Amino acid sequence: MNAVPRPAVAPDPLAAWRLTDAPWYTPQADEVEVFEAAHARRLPVLLKGPTGVGKTRFVEHMAWRLKLPLVTVACHEDLGAADLVGRWLLEADGTRWQDGPLTLAARHGAICYLDEIAEARADTTVVLHPLADNRRLLPIDKRNELVAAHADFQLVVSCNPGYQSFERSLKPSTRQRFCALSFAPPRPEHEQQIVMREGGVEADVAERLVALAARTRRLRDEGLEEGASTRTLVHAAQLIGQGLSPRRACDLAIVQPLTDDPALAEALQGLVDACWP
Hints:
Helix content: 40-55%
Distance between the termini: 83 Å
Shape: elongated
Number of helices: 11
Strand content: 15-25%
Strand order of the largest sheet: 2-5-8-1-9
Mean pLDDT: 91
Oligomer: single chain
Order of helices and strands: HEHEHEEHEHEEEHEHHHHH
Number of strands: 9
Radius of gyration: 22 Å
């Protein structure tokens, strides 16, 4: 008897974007339930908040929780619409179209996360408009194609309102297409838990780092753009775990990254010395 050949299995276009490990995340409020409600109606979500407070980790956690691939793009000032939508590639035997990350997510069904969307060029946000309203369409002018978003597709963007200039802020026509979730530094008990787990330090060290962060955040009135983020505390904790002294670790992970101003650096170092006399 002749064997019946099995049909070839098409490769998974989102294989590289599927999470293999569960990202650890501790909720601060009702953000998990809010995101799940938005996803149920495929509403786009805007995450607002300072750097290092867990916006990206939250999106990773939700993608894992919803069992969806997560296509992530770190936006920058040179990022244009073609970088998201795709482009024609010239090859030895002709031209070939390559989907950009936004098209890939919309066509095949994934969460597309555009981190710091306001940093991208203006033509980038315009491309999002038909995807972020009830049409859920992505026009690809270069192919004369109109992509209807997959049922599992969801658009998520983030921004940091604290340091964006007026020119870099999102226009109302863009903002009003999104549901918005605001993120702030975690409450001290949550932040301490994060630093202990992610930084691998004991409770006493985590408690001192969290107290230090709270003091740096009060320096915003003294000219500091942003105080120490949870991310910087984790970095300091990891350096301490590698054997550096707490003072040296805090200088490397907190004081020096936060400012180049000698007076502010001296003030920050004074806060470090107060936590580790």
